[in-house]
Design brief:
By secondary structure, the protein is mainly alpha-helical. The protein has helices spanning 8-21, 25-39, 43-55, 59-72, 76-89, 93-106, 111-124, 126-129, 175-178, and strands at 138-141, 145-150, 153-158. The termini are far apart.
Amino acid sequence: ALPTVAPVEDIYIALSTLYAQQGELALAGETLQQGLDRVGESSPLLLALGRHYLALADYSLAQEQYKRVIALNGDAAAAYAALGDMYARRGDGDSAVVQFQAALALEPENATYHLGLAEALDMRCPTFRTSMSERPLRVSFEPSAATYSRSGLRARVIMRPPFSKLSDRSPRISPSQLL
């Protein structure tokens, strides 16, 4: 039997990542664009191209790629989360919160999206942000809500749809546990 080959999108993304790691950012972007030219509209390639533009701080082009993914109805949760990350980097906490909430509506158990939302709430709410570097972030899940807290300062976010069963709940998670 012949060995299986990775999807074409993955090959272009891996090659682009190698170029970026070597500091060849122009080649990294060109590789992703060549992949799109060959494969057509592809959610993984568009997400990778959006991340590439985000790394270059070209927010308008990054946003365009993420919105193309959402329009394709591809990996929309990842695209919403990427938009949330982009808005957070630009300092727009309100828009970041909206995007992370959209991502969580599609994937309510994704801990990375919960942490992104917590950071966006941190930007938006000065009382929540007090001495945040000294306070570990804790995320706790309940069947219909998530609570984000730092040493007594709490923000509670209602999630829809709720978890389907109690066994779907996650324990408290720290950012170091995700790495």
